[in-house]
Amino acid sequence: MTDSIEALKILTPTTQAWQLIYQDDQLLVVNKPAMLLTVPGRHPANFDCLVSRVQQQFPTAQVVHRLDYDTSGLVILPLTKAALSNISKQFQARTVQKQYQALVQGEVVPASGSIDLPIAADPARRPLYKICQVSGKPSLTHYQLLGYEQERDVSRLQLSPVTGRSHQLRVHLLSLGHPIIGDTLYGDAKNQALSPRLCLHAASIEFCHPVSGKLLQFSVAAPFYTRHP
């Protein structure tokens, strides 16, 4: 059964502008602000999004991967069909390297590790996801502790997802007992009070140029900090 238009959530887009990080005749790399969809949502009121804004300046920009509405960070936007096909194949082969930074509740111990837990949609709590050994798809996330603030009991993590499941980083960290700060979907009231936004940022990305084959690497610092998320 499909949702009616009335049942679809309207997401208010941020007024913060996207940032151009790299440009050539084949692709763009941009920094998406939090509180902005990557592509238009199902509700007509959710047309305003990253790609619609970018296409005002670069009409041929296309989407090859996405970030959640709440997540900020780096997004690759191919400008040609050939570039779209090539970069899409890189994502399918899992050769695109992505790293995120996040602030989470509690002190994460051990300081590094891997979360290898299958993720499935949660029909009873749409649009949420859950860990499910029966119907979940294989999902793998590596993490590294970057710092811990004892005063607020907050850890800063570097996250390297191997797979790209919906809500993977949120669900995996929640499963460890360390929800991402400011998470309106999976966090409790205390969690949400710590930050006005989800403290998750796509901080770096590495892939091969679709024409030259040259390795491209880009990084943008997270716009939140351990003392002021």
Automatic annotation (TrEMBL):
It holds the Pfam family PseudoU_synth_2. GO terms for molecular function: catalytic activity, acting on RNA; pseudouridine synthase activity; RNA binding. Keywords: Isomerase. It catalyses: a uridine in RNA = a pseudouridine in RNA. The keyword Acetylation does not apply. Gene3D superfamilies: Pseudouridine synthase. Residues 26-174 form the Pseudouridine synthase RsuA/RluA-like domain. Its EC number is 5.4.99.-. It is an enzyme of class 5 (isomerase). SUPFAM superfamilies: Pseudouridine synthase. GO terms for biological process: enzyme-directed rRNA pseudouridine synthesis. It comes from the Bacteria. The active site is at D68. The keyword Isomerase applies. Belongs to the pseudouridine synthase RluA family. Responsible for synthesis of pseudouridine from uracil. This is Pseudouridine synthase. It comes from Rheinheimera riviphila.
